[in-house]
Specification:
Layout: H1 2-25, E1 49-55, E2 65-69, E3 75-78, E4 82-85, H2 91-102, E5 111-116, E6 120-125, E7 131-134, E8 139-140, H3 141-147, E9 160-163, E10 169-172, H4 174-179, H5 181-184, E11 187-188, E12 193-196
Length: about 200
């Protein structure tokens, strides 16, 4: 009888000593980062058309929405002459900036939603199907030309021109871009114009 009690007490002590140790050595589970970094292709650029919608505004009244275009300097001007830097920001960042500027200074509360208009790029020149195409993110020069069904037989691949929405010009050697896409295959953004010249015979 005594040996049974000793064994029971020993088992109980082992459980009491072992359980706290398990708790202290186990690390809490880390939640994955679901947001991640904002890609450059998701940021607003000069020339982007925006629709700004205002909701939940008490008196005084405000317009329900405004249509604006991002200027060459990256700015927009909204209701009551408020100026905002839009280029280089995501839609959610711009929404937050607009709300912070109005709430407290002009209104007690406000809900702001910013929508980007149709985002397009153009491929022209010596490609099989030149035209304007919807921008769907993560676009490069070679992918853009593929979207236009590729080069014609007479295309010059050595000096493809990119005219950015702000007027800047860049040139891409698409043969080098094919061999070294990480460095040479430049990224394309909404509003860009890509021109493939014809080779000189």
């Amino acid at each position: 009888m005594r040996s049974w009690r000793v064994a029971a007490v020993s088992v109980l002590l082992m459980l009491l000593v072992g359980m706290p140790g398990c708790r202290t050595t186990q690390e809490p589970e880390r939640l994955p980062d679901i947001d991640g970094p904002i890609r450059s292709s998701e940021l607003l650029r000069p020339g982007d058309a925006l629709l700004v919608v205002y909701r939940d505004i008490p008196m005084p009244p405000a317009p329900e929405q405004e249509q604006v275009q991002v200027r060459d300097d990256g700015s927009i001007t909204l209701h009551l002459g408020q100026r905002f830097q839009a280029a280089g920001k995501s839609l959610s960042q711009l929404e937050e900036d607009i709300r912070d500027a109005y709430v407290g200074k002009f209104y007690q509360r406000m809900t702001v939603t910013v929508h980007a208009g149709d985002r397009m790029f153009t491929v022209d020149g010596a490609v099989r199907q030149p035209g304007r195409f919807p921008y769907q993110g993560q676009m490069t020069v070679l992918r853009a030309i593929t979207t236009a069904s590729g080069f014609t037989d007479f295309a010059s691949r050595r000096k493809v021109e990119i005219i950015r929405a702000n007027g800047e010009r860049e040139f891409v050697d698409c043969l080098e871009a094919r061999d070294n896409p990480r460095e040479k295959d430049l990224e394309i953004f909404p509003g860009d114009y890509i021109f493939v010249p014809q080779s000189v015979l």
